[in-house]
Design brief:
flat, 115 residues, 5 helices, mainly alpha, single chain
């Protein structure tokens, strides 16, 4: 996004919500990280789809389609994509937004029930 568009969007949001420049900057950076992840996911899908289909239709034998090297790029790149996703979305994907707080309350309630 161009600087002028970014400044215009900030001014508009500031008038509507009263958001501070620091809050806007944090939200802007988060949105940019999410956008980069979705671009990474799209490239992953397109490239690996091409590679796998190319192996499928390029060979006369179905045997090559079922070999490890046909899927190895997708597998290892997929591990990197998962790591990228976890870095963007954090542990919320696995544990939810208030997981720690809920677990603490659960343990406190269990302790109170035992006493």
């Amino acid at each position: 996004m161009r600087r002028l568009e970014k400044d215009f969007m900030f001014e508009k949001l500031q008038k509507e919500t009263g958001i501070s420049s620091e809050e806007y900057y944090i939200a802007y950076k988060k949105v940019k990280r999410i956008k980069r992840f979705y671009i990474h996911l799209t490239v992953y899908l397109l490239v690996n789809l091409y590679l796998i289909l190319n192996k499928r239709f390029d060979s006369d034998s179905n045997d090559i389609f079922y070999r490890w090297n046909t899927y190895s790029t997708a597998f290892f790149w997929g591990i990197g994509l998962i790591a990228h996703g976890l870095s963007v979305f954090g542990s919320r994907v696995l544990f939810g937004d208030n997981w720690e707080e809920n677990k603490i309350k659960e343990y406190i309630q269990k302790k109170d029930n035992r006493n």
